[in-house]
Specification:
This protein is α/β, with parallel strands linked by helices and 630 residues long. It has 22 helices and 7 strands. The protein has 3 domains: 214 residues, Growth Hormone, Chain: A, CATH 1.20.1250; 195 residues, MFS general substrate transporter like domains (Growth Hormone, Chain: A, Up-down Bundle); 188 residues, Glycerol-3-phosphate (1)-acyltransferase, CATH 3.40.1130.10. The protein is elongated and about 90 Å long.
């Protein structure tokens, strides 16, 4: 039995074997990638190593491409392997490969052999390509649905922190005198061994498609996977949304160093500080997702994230200024108050980046077919790599054309607005969830009880007392599954709310004497939804209360259950009587609001079997659930 929502805490996952070994394995994998890569780049730059007539600068640029190349070449294979074989077994194989690569890299460091180091960098790209689809697609196998946002948040946040720590450690260890190059070898191999030991504790994660025939025709299979993903509009647009974030992030992370040095006048320690602000921001945003989403896959956070990315991206342009007065070290940089705004912008860019990406990963995991999740993540890795290459080419072209680095970052922040509008026009569900999330979180603090009584799948009817124009919004914000509301056609037509209700598949209804055709159509739609296993919610009083008391339930609920016998779940809203949207003291929305963050209650009762679901029984249940708190 899942825990009550208000008791569950994502950090409790660290006490479980189904999460902790995976978390440690992926954390040290991401750490090692960056430990090795950064140590190699520092060695190239400070030892002036060259090979095949290429300059150090060319080698450093090539290193980024060499690491990304395997994502293009082998993502389709890694996606198929993660469907065909047990993911825990695969993780152990990948970690053994990592130990071998790091042992070979040790030889490269010892001999200052650039071709060996570049070969190992390519192989670490292969290691990450193999592990990426596995780590995200195993989460739905290990975690319950209400844990997915928290689990994804911890994985995503920790990945960025691992990248940051790996880069700092790589640069620090390799420059240590006099034994830096020996120490980095021990560090890389040691970290790989820790990852392997952790992977051995991962519980079995059986193959979703054990009979899958692996296709080695990479271009054909890549196109087939992307075409399959395109068949599910929500999943494919989520993949595009994630790839856009990598485009956005690639530009910011690539040009953060030149921005620090040439625009802000900071040294290497200032760059590390600013990179830390961005990485910690993503970690913070990723972990906060679970708290803000109420343990559900909350699509409303995606537009919230994109608004923040643009807002703080634009503000960063105005915060950096354009001519460094002097060269700053860490202490003198922090000492100047004008730089606090730059640090805050980078931190908040990271936070809103976390809000943007975590729900998209959770959405791909929950909306893809069970035997396609790994390949959907593989398709995402291919698209991410492609978008990052395009970001790199676009940046070079714009800078060559005379755009400044702050101007480039501003351009990307403004492009983000257009991309967001495009995605939300394709999938109105994102925007609808955002409006629901903002309205319910801004106006109320909802204390919910018994949400676990609403089944995770299968058709059911929710019945609830009707106190205000916001009732449907509060229910939509609290219930984990999408809810189809049957509502008075006049409420359905409320400005702004109409877009939300229409996108959520609400069903307008009118009394028989007013519009018999609309009423018949409404009951037909309800039967359709229930047969498809959807959740339907009705307010059996037939209208919003005018005196705060629960009115007599009408017979419509009995007709619905007679046509489609499904369980009926009574709910009660508490504390909404007297709110701006209720009819206390006259018409709703015609009086002064009583303030934001009002405390309200939402109680879910025990399901009533269809044969016992009379309107009298359901009315008595709702009255008992509501109690005296109107």
């Amino acid at each position: 039995m899942p825990q009550h929502d208000h008791q569950h805490n994502q950090f409790a996952l660290f006490r479980t074997r189904r999460f902790l070994p995976l978390f440690i394995t992926q954390f040290f994998g991401a750490f090692n990638d960056n430990l090795f890569k950064q140590a190699m780049v520092v060695l190239l730059v400070f030892r002036g190593l060259t090979t095949a007539g290429m300059s150090t600068d060319t080698l450093v640029s090539a290193a980024a491409g060499i690491f990304i190349l395997p994502f293009f070449l082998f993502s389709t294979i890694s996606g198929q392997l993660a469907e065909k074989y047990d993911k825990a077994f695969l993780a152990q194989c990948v970690k053994v490969l990592e130990i071998c690569i790091m042992a070979a890299a040790g030889y490269g460091f010892w001999q200052h052999n650039v071709p060996v180091l570049l070969g190992c960098l390519f192989m670490m790209g292969v290691h990450s390509t193999l592990f990426g689809p596995l780590k995200y697609s195993v989460l739905p196998q290990y975690l319950r649905e209400h844990e997915l946002m928290g689990g994804n948040g911890l994985i995503e946040g920790a990945t960025f922190v691992a990248i940051l720590l790996g880069q700092i450690a790589g640069a620090t260890i390799v420059q240590h005198q006099p034994h830096g190059e020996q120490l980095i070898v021990w560090a890389c191999v040691g970290v790989a061994i820790i990852g392997w030991i952790a992977s051995r504790s991962m519980p079995p994660a059986p193959a979703p498609a054990p009979n899958l025939k692996i296709s080695w025709n990479l271009p054909k299979e890549t196109w087939r996977i992307i075409k399959h993903a395109r068949g599910n509009k929500t999943v494919f647009n989520s993949l595009l949304g994630l790839s856009w974030f990598w485009f956005f992030g690639a530009v910011y992370l690539t040009y953060l160093l030149p921005l620090t040095a040439h625009v802000l006048g900071g040294n290497a320690t200032v760059f590390t500080l600013l990179l830390t602000m961005f990485s910690v921001g993503i970690g913070l945003g990723s972990v906060l997702c679970e708290r803000l989403s109420g343990h559900r896959v909350e699509l409303g956070l995606v537009p919230f994230g994109s608004i923040g990315l643009s807002l703080f991206g634009v503000d960063l342009y105005f915060a950096v200024g354009h001519s460094p007065v002097s060269t700053y070290d860490l202490v003198s940089f922090i000492h100047e108050a004008k730089h606090w705004r730059v640090m805050a912008d980078l931190l908040l860019l990271g936070v809103f980046g976390g809000f943007f990406t975590v729900p998209l990963y959770a959405l791909i995991q929950t909306r893809s077919e069970k035997d396609f999740v790994s390949r959907a993540i593989a398709a995402n890795n291919i698209l991410n790599s492609l978008f990052m290459v395009v970001a790199s080419v676009m940046s070079i072209v714009l800078l060559k054309a005379g755009l400044s680095i702050p101007g480039l970052l501003l351009t990307v922040a403004l492009m983000n607005v257009l991309v967001a509008l495009y995605i939300y026009s394709l999938i109105p569900e994102f925007l609808m969830r955002f409006l629901v999330w903002i309205l319910t979180h801004l106006l109320y603090r909802v204390r919910s009880q018994g949400l676990q009584r609403i089944p995770d799948e299968g058709g059911c009817v929710l019945v609830c007392n009707h106190v205000s124009f916001m009732d449907a919004m509060i229910l939509a914000g609290a219930v984990r599954r999408p809810v189809r509301f049957v509502m008075d056609h006049r409420i359905f037509k409320t400005p702004i709310l109409k877009f939300i209700f229409k996108t959520a598949g609400a069903i307008p209804i009118a009394p028989a004497k007013e519009d018999p055709t609309m009423k018949t159509k409404a009951f037909d739609r309800v039967a359709e939804y229930l047969q498809q296993g959807e959740v339907v919610c009705i307010f059996p009083e037939g209208g919003i209360t005018r005196n705060g008391e629960i009115q007599t339930f009408r017979p419509g609920i009995e007709e619905i259950i007679r046509r489609t016998p499904v369980p009926v779940i009574p709910l009660a809203l508490q504390g909404l009587w007297g709110s701006f949207f209720s009819r206390k003291d006259g018409a709703a929305m015609m009086k002064m609001p009583r303030g934001i963050f009002s405390k309200i209650g939402f109680v879910v009762g025990e399901p009533v079997p269809p044969e016992a679901a009379t309107r009298q029984r359901l009315e008595a249940d709702v009255r008992a659930l509501r109690g005296d708190w109107r």
